[in-house]
C-alpha cells in the first residue's frame, strides 16, 4: 500500500509477546509489567490482521517479541502465516537462547530467515548486558542455524558496554556466512537513559582490520539495513542507524504490538487499536482501519527532539 508520502508499505513487524527470558540493559533490565493473557492477541486474531495486511499489499512479515519463542504454539502459527495466500516471506527475530530445539521444524516449514540478537561475543560481557549465563546456548544456536541452511543474521545494539565486542562480533561474518548488523541505540525506553558509541566509530574499528570494507548496493532483506562487504568476509556488515542516517524517506514498515496496536512509526506512541475492532460486536472494517493508519504514517521520526517523542513504553512492549 502507498502511504501519503508515496512510500510503499509492504513489511509488518509482529510482536507475539512482551515477555523475555533475558534482562538486557537497554531493553528491560527490571522486566516489564506483563499484561494478562486476555490482553494479548490470539494467533487467530493475528492471522486475521495478516490476511487484511496482505490484501493491502503487505507481503513480508517479521515475527518478534519480547522473545517470541517463549509463546506456546509459535511453530503452528508460523506455518499458518507462511501458508497464507500472498505471503512472500516470514522471518523470525530471537535472542537465540531457546532456538536450538526449534531449528529443525523452522527449516521444515520454510522460515525465510532468522535474526539472532547478540550483543557480545564472549560469556562475560554477554552476562553483563543480558543478566544471563546463556551465551553458549546462543552461540550453539548460531552455529546450528547456519548448519541447517537457514539464512541467519546477527543483530548487535551498539552500547557502551560492548565497544570492545564490535570486532569479535564482526568476525562472525568471517567465520560464518552470516550478516552482522550493528544497530544504533534508539532513545526509547531504557535506551533513552544510556550512552553508546556511534556507528561511525564502530566502522572505524572495522576498517582497521578490513580496510577494503565498502558499501554494496544489495537488498538482503526487507528492512532498512545498509550493507558493506570485504573480500575477507563470508557475510556482510550491516548498519541500522536511524539517527545518524535517517531512512524515513524510504521506510516500508509498520508494527503490530502483542496487544493489537498498529504502530506506523517507532517513536510515536499513537496507533490504531485493532484488538478493539476485532473484539467489537459492531466492527468497522478492519481493512479500512489499517489502511487509514498506514496512509497516515508520519513523514519521519523525531528522535533528535526528545521532547517530541510520544512513545514511552519499553522496546519489548513495542516489538523491538
What does this protein structure show overall?
This protein is an alpha/beta fold and 320 residues long. Helix content is 28%, strand content 16%. It is built from eleven helices and twelve strands. The longest helix has 13 residues.
Outline of the structure:
With 320 residues, the protein is of the alpha/beta class.
Could you tell me the mean pLDDT?
92
The amount of beta strand, in percent, is 15-25%
Structural class: alpha/beta
* Number of helices, counting only DSSP H or I runs of 4 residues or more: 11
Rg of Cα set = 19 Å
Separation, N- and C-terminal Cα atoms: 23 Å
Task: Give descriptors for this structure.
11 helices, 320 residues, 12 strands, alpha/beta
Chart the SSEs and their pairings.
Layout: E1 11-15, H1 43-55, E2 60-64, H2 74-82, E3 89-94, H3 103-109, E4 113-117, H4 123-130, H5 135-147, E5 152-157, H6 166-170, H7 172-175, E6 179-183, H8 199-209, E7 214-216, E8 226-229, E9 237-240, E10 253-256, E11 261-263, E12 272-273, H9 274-278, H10 286-295, H11 315-318
Parallel strand pairs: 1-2, 1-10, 2-3, 3-4, 4-5, 5-6, 6-9
Antiparallel strand pairs: 7-8, 8-9, 10-11, 11-12
Amino acid at each position: 500500500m502507498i502511504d501519503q508520502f508515496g512510500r510503499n508499505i509492504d513489511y509488518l513487524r509482529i510482536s507475539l509477546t512482551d515477555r523475555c527470558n533475558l534482562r538486557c540493559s537497554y531493553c528491560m533490565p527490571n522486566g516489564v509489567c506483563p499484561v494478562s493473557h486476555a490482553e494479548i492477541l490470539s494467533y487467530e486474531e493475528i492471522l486475521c490482521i495478516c490476511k487484511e495486511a496482505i490484501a493491502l499489499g503487505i507481503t513480508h512479515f517479521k515475527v518478534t517479541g519480547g522473545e517470541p519463542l517463549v509463546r506456546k504454539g509459535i511453530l503452528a502459527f508460523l506455518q499458518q502465516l507462511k501458508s497464507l495466500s500472498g505471503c512472500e516471506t516470514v522471518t523470525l527475530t530471537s535472542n537465540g537462547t531457546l532456538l536450538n530445539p526449534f531449528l529443525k521444524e523452522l527449516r521444515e516449514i520454510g522460515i525465510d530467515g532468522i535474526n539472532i540478537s547478540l550483543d557480545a561475543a564472549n560469556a562475560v560481557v554477554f552476562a553483563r548486558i543480558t543478566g544471563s549465563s546463556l551465551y553458549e546456548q546462543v552461540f550453539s544456536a548460531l552455529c546450528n542455524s547456519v548448519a541447517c541452511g537457514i539464512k541467519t543474521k546477527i543483530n548487535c545494539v551498539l552500547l557502551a558496554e560492548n565497544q570492545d565486542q564490535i570486532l569479535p562480533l564482526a568476525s562472525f561474518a568471517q567465520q560464518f556466512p552470516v550478516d552482522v548488523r550493528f544497530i544504533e541505540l534508539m532513545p526509547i525506553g531504557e535506551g533513552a537513559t544510556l550512552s553508546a558509541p556511534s556507528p561511525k566509530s564502530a566502522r572505524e574499528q572495522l576498517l582497521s582490520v578490513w580496510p577494503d570494507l565498502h558499501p554494496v548496493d544489495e537488498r538482503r532483506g526487507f528492512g532498512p539495513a545498509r550493507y558493506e562487504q570485504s573480500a575477507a568476509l563470508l557475510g556482510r556488515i550491516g548498519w541500522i542507524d536511524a539517527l545518524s542516517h535517517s531512512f524515513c524517506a524510504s521506510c516500508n514498515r509498520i508494527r503490530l504490538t502483542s496487544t493489537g496496536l498498529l504502530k506506523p512509526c517507532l517513536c510515536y506512541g499513537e496507533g490504531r487499536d485493532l484488538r478493539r475492532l476485532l473484539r467489537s460486536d459492531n466492527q468497522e472494517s478492519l481493512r479500512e482501519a489499517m489502511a487509514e493508519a498506514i496512509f497516515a504514517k508520519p513523514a519521519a521520526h523525531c528522535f533528535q527532539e526528545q521532547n517530541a517523542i510520544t512513545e514511552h513504553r519499553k522496546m519489548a512492549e513495542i516489538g523491538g
